[in-house]
Amino acid sequence: MLRYRRDNETVSMNMTPLIDVVFLLIIFFLVSSHLARQEQQLELDLPDAATGELSTESSARVLTLNLLPTGEVSLAGVPTPIAELTERLGREVERQPSPLEVRLRSDRTVPYGDVEPVLAACAKANVWNIRFAVREERQ
């Protein structure tokens, strides 16, 4: 038996869930991009470097670690005491199997004695890919 479709019948789809998901994605990306920008905009007087390589995009996840002149450490924009740094880095290593890269941004006035415990915390958490953020040498 054949069924005939009437021309005035329209098939519609409920768009509300789709719109909800799109708005949630927009909000997520706005918040995450704001946090990433805020982390990079910390006013640090980075040391100059005459030689070195520009960091190329890789498949590694990048965590930014800021070492302020006051001795404070900030991991991914969150102030973190040195005592907790190893634990937080260890959780990041375990979270995903992809390699983890730590980008260390340190003010030029910070003595190496303050940088050394940060490097030791990275080593204890099995993070070996560490890059120092520097500025191209001024001329």
Describe it for me?
The structure is a single chain. The chain is of the alpha/beta class. The protein is 37% helix and 19% strand. The protein has helices spanning 16-40, 82-95, 112-124, and strands at residues 48-49, 61-67, 73-75, 78-79, 100-106, 129-132, 135-136. Strands 4-3-2-5-6 form a five-stranded mixed β-sheet, with helices on one face. Helix 2 packs parallel to helix 3. The model has no long low-confidence stretch (mean pLDDT 78). It is found in: Cell membrane. It holds the Pfam family ExbD. This is Biopolymer transport protein ExbD/TolR.
Instruction: Give the H and E element order.
Output: HEEEEHEHEE
Tell me roughly what share of residues is in helical segments.
25-40%
Q: Return the CATH topology of the domain at 45-136.
A: Nucleotidyltransferase, domain 5
Report the top-level CATH class of the domain at 45-136.
Alpha Beta
Second CATH tier, the architecture of the domain at 45-136: 2-Layer Sandwich
Instruction: Please work out how many helical segments DSSP would assign.
Output: 3
For the sheet with most strands, the description reads: 5 strands, mixed
Q: Residue ranges: pLDDT <50 for 5 or more in a row? A: none
What shape does the CA trace take? elongated
Give the strand tally.
7
Report how far the terminal alpha carbons are from each other.
Answer: 87 Å
